[in-house]
Design a protein that fits this description.
The structure holds two protein chains of two kinds. Chain A is of the alpha+beta class. Chain A has two domains: about 170 residues, Uridine Diphospho-n-acetylenolpyruvylglucosamine Reductase, domain 3 (2-Layer Sandwich); about 120 residues, Enolase-like, domain 1. Chain A contains ten helices and 14 strands. The radius of gyration of chain A is 19 Å and the shape is globular. Helices cover about 30% and strands about 25% of the residues of chain B. The structure holds FE2/S2 (inorganic) cluster (2 copies).
């Protein structure tokens, strides 16, 4: 039985509430995963962080795009800033659930869930995302920005203790001139309603608009935590983005990704076949967009 | 408790709520707004959608306190001053309402869409409704309704529904009329079982075995009984009458006594003041089990030494069909193909979970409110378990939020009756989705061995088919389903030499029973795949080979019955072929802009019996009464599971008695007030109960005609009953007046008719095993992504021989819904069990088609009349949901060269096959 459902209106208040419960309360976002899971019976109070002042939307704090912990997937998808300069994230968030879920579920919740194949998380990771963690120490509110990649300990295990810490915001550097991102995934209509493979890329082209100046590739599930494919990105760096290079990058990706059989979702063999396909599709999309982003932000 | 203040449909409301409460429960229970339905409680089905500050949300997991200060819109708020919202009206006009349980959710989701986008494309609609499910309609009518509503809201004229060409209608029969219950269903006024509340009502919960096979050593309920708020805890010791129930075989324990045979077996039941307390009490019940070895496969279950599910062994029934000389037939063949096929266990996924309410009346009778497919069978089984005569039990049928065969067996009916008697208070038992999934009988998973021989020209010479059906822990309707699977296993073809052996086998899986298609959905996949393979081996056109062998008047079926009439299969094939020509695409093709995809067509046919058949007496009784206000009422115990029976019966009575359709009411399924219409199964209601209604109405008309003849001073034969009047040349008297006059003369204007369908013969005796068959042909266009293995069905061309379309609007809905359900059977649906333990224990683990799977559907109606059927009609409920699966899998073969032998099509497997093929 739950004793209280708090909806604080400031981050300070939320952090203090958590501190006051000393571990018996837990942060909740949209709750679309939380309320479906049968566990958590021991939690006596919930602290809803979707209505914190200044933290329920997407905003631009140069040089960062900042996403508040209350920002729902719908908000993110509808944000022109994210559509244009964090496209992978808009694409990923747009593929989650239907409008009823997107109107409620938050990206912060998605990250706290720490699933290795979470769409939004993969996209933010490819964009080089960071997370602001907040907590109360005595009466003081403490906050700290950490790399998104450090947020995960294992499948479904977050580095954040939701009874003490709040993911208050996320941020990333928006893509600029000659730069773009893209997201691709495969679902399977039977078995579990989870994507069986997702992948995001961020690519910056050189002045010639053909050579890759830098790239980030993330994929999941390709290990216990959302996976950043460094070897694959390495292959792309400084090379023209043609089919041969993409194929080579695909091989590098397969070599470093830890793919496995997961019952009722996908076989390892299947994942190994589609991962390079997703890479090619995402790279093509990002490449086209990067070329188009030539003068846009000049 | 916490204070909640909010605005609901423009009205300020407030209440004390529990901090953990969700909006859906508060709307339904605290504010009595039961228009918002709950299908899953896990943010999967979307039918609980309401708008919070204009935004659609799943109210089942939306914390009520989060809506504090918000504007909430529910379905009850849409109609203004009795005028329906354009969405509500369009849903009715397009036939987008069937069982109606999803309707409030669909309408609210659509409202949010139209508020934001007044002119949505089909893609926009599919995007917005992607997670709001409907199991009945197949979504085509839903899309049309939303587009129409958008047009109306833009001030444009309404767009009429697009309906297939049918025979010229009579006055009422043959007209596309809206369902009589549609208005209640679009406004949220319609009441399903969980919407009923009685004073002092208790809430019940069931302790399920949780293990697939074990001997019960000890049950201790003392701690549960001691929990405050608990009123009763019952076990098998508290069942005074028959310890078992069952539709055909009495093998299913009311509460388990010696063993548990599947995970969902009921061991104890609790009634308490709240559902939470009842569930808490379940956790206090101690049961000691001695686990037994589990058998989970029908073939393994027949091996010597296999664990025995029941004492008498695991074979429920062996069904044998034999015609001609099999060996000679194969000797004659130029080509023989052989193959093994396997279908999956599938789930009905009706959106309304099972619910029942039990109540003891002042005179000590027991009443059970339940949405059941067979009320009189419920009455028999409840009375037997209570050990009382049947007339001490009354089953009151409520609206049913989808059935599809899954609400034929006993669910909570007996349990609530027992608990109501034990406590003296009304008791409600509502299953959670997770419980519904592991409890109720499924579609049989069937394994097939098929061998087909043919001459070079494509003529079939012999078929040998073996089937093993997994009927799970209890018989349910297993032997009937597998009999149907067996007798339909050689397809709608004339085959001179046939031998079929079919085994319905007990295992420790969830029981399998009736599910739309009733075994034939499974056999059609096997035989239509084999025929496709044969056509390809012979290099024959897949349509041609079917036409060549199709059943027609004069054909003899594999059970030895002669088809004498109403065999529209050839016409179905011709209609689909014609449409395919108009499509103008090759059988297999590619598109330049999507090099990774292949497109191809596939073809299949099917037939399905109407009625119980096999020698079972098939009767239905209907009572018709005429009133002085000019209205009539039709009464029978037959289930409206969304299929449109109320409309069919109203049409028939209105037609025969000459009253307006709106003046014909239908009262269903109250065993005190309505006679027995028989089970709602085997696509039999239109034919059998339809005939009973027709004949009862005709007799009543004759009785009234005698009265009217006096009044008008005219000969009886020259009277015309139409539009609420009885006419003779220029003179007329109102129908109600005639009724009033009859009453004055002491003539009763209520009568009933017991109709008995033509006799059938048991299997193995030759002769007519069934009195009618419906036929269908379908072509499917699929798209396969060669890089990911993803397969989609883009279009279905269908032709269905239903004898006569009594209501084309309702018929269209049955056909589209059946097609999309069968598409799910091919591409998405699998109820997964591992060693008897369901992995599919949540909706998130069972994927039925969403609006995004809906293909374009071109539907033709063939009306090859059945002489004895009402107006020529025969069964419509199942036939469309049979050929879609093989049409799709045959198309996948055409596209890729990979033959699907196991359902559902798994993209993971398909991609690996494609690779193996490439690597040679
Ligand atoms: S999503 Fe709420 S009841 Fe299914
Ligand atoms: S009408 Fe949609 S579920 Fe029945």
């Amino acid at each position: 039985m739950r004793e209280a459902y708090h909806i604080p209106s400031t981050l300070e208040e939320a952090a203090r509430l958590l501190a006051r419960y000393g571990g018996a309360a837990r942060v909740v976002g949209g709750g679309t995963d939380f309320f479906v899971d049968e566990g958590h019976q021991d939690v006596s109070a919930l602290v809803d962080v979707t209505r914190l002042e200044g933290l329920s939307d997407v905003s631009y704090h140069p040089p960062f795009v900042v996403i508040g912990c209350g920002a729902t997937h719908s908000r993110i998808v509808a944000s022109p800033l994210i559509q244009q300069r964090g496209t992978a994230l808009a694409e990923a968030c747009g593929q989650i659930g239907g409008p009823q879920v997107r109107n409620v579920a938050t990206l912060a919740g998605n990250i706290a869930h720490a699933l290795p194949a979470a769409d939004g998380t993969l996209a933010l990771l490819a964009l080089g995302g960071e997370v602001m963690v907040a907590w109360a120490e005595g009466d003081a509110l403490r906050t700290e920005w950490r790399a998104l990649a450090q947020m995960f300990l294992g499948p479904g295990r977050s580095a954040i203790d939701s009874t003490r810490h709040i993911i208050a915001a996320m941020r990333f550097l928006p893509t600029g001139e000659r730069e773009a991102s893209a997201f691709a995934r495969v679902m399977r209509p039977q078995g579990v309603a989870l994507p069986i493979m997702g992948l995001a890329v961020r690519v910056r082209l050189g002045e010639d608009l053909a050579t890759v100046e830098s790239a980030t590739v993330t994929a999941g599930p390709a290990g216990p935590v959302p996976f950043c494919a460094r070897q694959c990105a390495q292959v792309l760096q400084g090379r023209p983005l043609n089919e041969r290079v993409i194929a080579e990058a695909g091989e590098a990706l397969l070599a470093e990704a830890q793919l496995r059989d997961s019952p009722h979702r996908a076989t390892r063999a299947y994942r190994a076949q589609v991962l390079p396909v997703l890479l090619r599709r995402a790279l093509h999309a990002a490449y086209r967009r990067a070329q188009a982003a030539q003068h846009q932000y000049a | 408790m916490a204070q909640l203040e909010l605005t609901i449909n423009g009205e300020r409301r407030s209440a004390e709520v529990h901090p953990g409460a969700f909006l859906a429960d508060v709307l339904r229970e605290t504010f009595g707004l039961t228009g918002t339905k709950i299908g899953c409680n896990e943010a999967e089905c979307g039918i609980c959608t309401v708008l919070v500050n204009g935004m659609p949300v799943n109210s089942c997991i939306y914390p009520a306190l989060k809506a504090h200060g918000a504007h909430v819109e529910t379905v009850e708020g849409l109609a203004r001053n009795g005028v329906l919202h354009p969405l509500q009206q369009a849903f009715i006009d397009h036939g987008a309402v069937q069982c109606g349980f999803c309707t409030p959710g669909l309408i609210m989701t659509a409202k949010a869409l139209l508020d934001a986008n007044p002119n949505p494309s089909e893609d926009d609609i599919k995007h917005a409704l992607k997670d709001t499910y409907c199991r009945c309609t197949g979504y085509v009518s839903v899309i049309h309704a939303i587009q129409d509503a958008a047009a109306r809201l833009r001030g444009e004229p309404p767009v009429p529904p697009s309906l297939p060409q049918t025979k010229t209608p009579l006055r009422v029969v043959g007209q596309p009329l809206p369902r009589p219950d549609a208005v209640a269903k679009v406004t949220g006024a319609a009441r399903y079982t969980d919407d009923y509340v009685f004073p002092n009502m208790l809430h019940a919960a069931t302790l399920r075995a949780g293990i697939p096979h074990a001997r019960i050593r000890r049950i201790d309920v003392s701690k549960a009984r001691a929990l405050p708020g608990v009123h009763a805890v019952l076990t098998h010791e508290d069942v005074p009458g028959s310890k078992n129930h069952g539709l055909v075989y009495n093998d299913w324990p009311v509460l388990c006594y010696d063993k548990v045979r599947y995970v969902g077996d009921a061991v104890a039941i609790v009634a308490a003041e709240t559902r939470e307390i009842a569930e808490q009490a379940l956790r206090l019940i101690e049961v000691e089990y001695e686990p037994l070895p589990v058998v989970d496969d029908p073939v393994a279950a027949l091996q010597p030494g296999a664990p025995k599910v029941h004492e008498q062994g695991n074979l429920l029934k062996h069904i044998h069909v034999e015609k001609g000389d099999l060996e000679a037939g194969f000797a004659e063949a130029d080509v023989i193909v052989e193959g093994e096929y396997q279908t999956a266990t599938t789930e009905h996924a009706f959106l309304e979970p099972e619910c029942a309410i039990g109540r003891v009346t002042d005179d000590g009778r027991v009443e059970v409110y339940v949405g059941s497919q067979i009320p009189y069978a419920d009455r028999r089984q409840v009375a037997a378990a209570l050990g009382v005569p049947e007339d001490r039990v009354r089953i009151i049928g409520t609206l049913i939020g989808g059935g599809f065969g899954g609400k034929e067996d006993i669910a909570g009916q007996i349990h609530v009756a027992l608990l109501a008697r034990a406590t003296g208070q009304p008791v409600k038992m509502l299953y959670r989705r997770s419980e519904s999934l592991i409890f109720h009988p499924k579609r049989h998973a069937v394994r097939f061995k098929v061998k087909v021989g043919a001459k070079r020209n494509g003529r079939f010479t012999a078929m040998r088919i073996e089937l093993w059906g997994d009927t799970g822990a209890y018989a349910s309707l297993g032997d009937k389903v597998m009999t149907r699977a067996a007798t339909h296993a050689s397809g709608p073809y004339e085959v001179p030499n046939v031998r079929i052996d079919c085994y319905a086998v007990y295992t420790n899986n969830v029981p399998a029973g009736a599910f739309r298609g009733f075994g034939v959905t499974q056999s059609a996949f096997a035989i239509e795949s084999a025929i496709d393979e044969l056509a390809q081996r012979l290099r024959l056109d897949p349509i041609h080979i079917r036409r060549l062998n199709a059943l027609r008047v004069g054909s003899v079926t594999n059970t030895g019955a002669v088809i004498r009439e109403s065999a529209g299969l050839l016409e179905c094939i011709a209609r689909v072929e014609e449409s395919l020509k108009q499509e103008g695409t090759p059988w297999v093709f590619r598109k330049a802009d999507v090099p990774n995809k292949v497109y191809a067509w596939g073809f299949a046919t099917a037939y399905k019996n109407t009625g119980l058949g096999g020698g079972a007496p098939d009767r239905s009784e209907v009572e018709v009464e005429a009133f002085t206000d000019g209205s009539v009422e039709v009464r029978t115990s037959a289930a409206e599971i969304g299929q449109g029976l109320v409309g069919v019966l109203a049409s028939i009575a209105a037609e025969e008695l000459g009253v307006p359709y709106e003046r014909a009411r239908v009262l269903l399924s109250d065993t005190d007030l309505t006679p027995d219409g028989g089970p709602t199964t085997a696509s039999r209601q239109t034919y059998v109960t339809g005939n009973a209604a027709r004949l009862a109405s005709i007799q009543l008309r004759q009785r009234l005609a005698a009265v009217a003849a006096e009044m008008l001073d005219a000969p009886v034969e020259s009277l015309r009953f139409a539009d609420g009047w009885v006419r003779h040349h220029g003179r007329a008297v109102a129908f109600g007046e005639v009724v009033a006059q009859a009453h004055r003369e002491g003539i009763r204007t209520r009568l009933s008719h017991l109709y008995e369908a033509p006799k059938t013969q048991p299997l193995g005796t030759g002769g007519d095993m069934h009195f009618a068959f419906s036929y269908a042909a379908q072509a499917a266009l699929v798209e396969v992504d060669l890089e990911t293995g993803e397969a989609r069905c883009l279009k279905i061309i269908s032709a269905t021989d239903v004898g006569r379309a009594i209501n084309p609007l309702a018929l269209q809905g049955q056909i589209e819904g059946g097609i999309v359900m069968c598409l799910g059977n091919a591409l998405t649906e699998e109820f997964i069990q591992e060693k008897g333990v369901p992995f599919t224990n949540r909706f998130a683990r069972y994927k039925m088609p969403s609006i995004r799977h809906t293909p374009q559907i071109i539907s033709h109606i063939v009306e090859d009349a059945a002489a004895e059927g009402p107006y020529g009609a025969k069964g419509v409920g199942e036939i469309s949901s049979i050929p879609t699966t093989p049409a799709i899998t045959n198309a996948i073969y055409a596209a890729t060269g990979v033959r699907v032998r196991k359902l559902p099509v798994d993209q993971d497997w398909l991609l690996r096959q494609l690779r193996a093929q490439r690597e040679g």
